[in-house]
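User: Okay, second chain of the day. Same drill as before: sequence in, structure tokens out.
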Amino acid sequence: MNSLQLLTESGFFWQDRIKGFARRNDHVLTLWYRLPNELVAEKELVQIAKSLLRIVSSKADGGGFFTVEKDHHPLAVHVHFNQWPHDLKPMFMREESVH
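Assistant: Same drill. Structure tokens below.
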């Protein structure tokens, strides 16, 4: 499974208003989830972030890390990649705005 498959099979879609993702910069992918129960949203976001990092990690660079933005609405997670996932590169070749 690649990064894009993981996102879409988990219900995350590019710039979706409820459960989406967007490129923040050359190394950071932002995931968000609008859900009344923020604990459930955070649990799912953290699980997806860990899975993404596991997919792209190599023994050499470790994949990266993530941060949870609890003071942001909707709840967001920033996934910081050491190397941008190859399967997501074509999707972000054009300019885009982050939610």
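Residues 23 and 29 are 5 Å apart (CA to CA).

User: Thanks, on to the next one.
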